[in-house]
Amino acid sequence: MSRRLFLQQSLSLATLAGLGGLSLPLSASLLPVSPFFGLHFDDRQGDAQLMRPYLGKPTVVNFWATWCAPCVEEMPELEAMHQDYPDIQFIGIAIDTSRNVIRFLERIPVTYDLYIAGHGGVKTMRELGNKKGGLPYTLVFNAQGRVHQEIIGQIDATALRQTLDPLVLAQANETINVNFVDKPDVLA
């Protein structure tokens, strides 16, 4: 994250805290939208991509590295969930180099979106709540961009699926409500 972007986000958070009369820093889970959606990471081609477009649908963000054995072990499970949950977005953020990630993907294919944070991604994880900076680190966001669950360490696939099921249901209910609002004559 650039120094300028970090300072802008810090100033925004300080302003929010001041407006609410708070003197303590706000937890990322209490903010209207997680700071994650204001970040950008490089894609595999080296182009910076904003995370903001992921708002609006439940999202699973997994910080990982090619040299992290538990990260590598859980990737097939995350890939399977990506296939099983088309209404949930999956994002991998590599705390690694683009070169290492590209070589890794030749051995273990992943179809969900992957971005490169480099080793500076550890600082980003800490800012998002992973104070020790350990890997893997997974955040589950609801459709409104709020942290729904934080997992430090390897995921338990069954437990994560139990977390995702209600998010899918909530997303489906929102879609149904939107359809009724868009077509009020359906209720008549």
TrEMBL record:
<dbReference type="InterPro" id="IPR050553">
    <property type="entry name" value="Thioredoxin_ResA/DsbE_sf"/>
</dbReference>
<protein>
    <submittedName>
        <fullName>TlpA family protein disulfide reductase</fullName>
    </submittedName>
</protein>
<dbReference type="InterPro" id="IPR013766">
    <property type="entry name" value="Thioredoxin_domain"/>
</dbReference>
<dbReference type="InterPro" id="IPR000866">
    <property type="entry name" value="AhpC/TSA"/>
</dbReference>
<dbReference type="InterPro" id="IPR017937">
    <property type="entry name" value="Thioredoxin_CS"/>
</dbReference>
<dbReference type="Pfam" id="PF00578">
    <property type="entry name" value="AhpC-TSA"/>
</dbReference>
<keyword id="KW-0676">Redox-active center</keyword>
<feature type="domain" description="Thioredoxin">
    <location>
        <begin position="28"/>
        <end position="169"/>
    </location>
</feature>
<dbReference type="InterPro" id="IPR036249">
    <property type="entry name" value="Thioredoxin-like_sf"/>
</dbReference>
<dbReference type="GO" id="GO:0015036">
    <property type="term" value="F:disulfide oxidoreductase activity"/>
</dbReference>
<dbReference type="InterPro" id="IPR006311">
    <property type="entry name" value="TAT_signal"/>
</dbReference>
<dbReference type="GO" id="GO:0016209">
    <property type="term" value="F:antioxidant activity"/>
</dbReference>
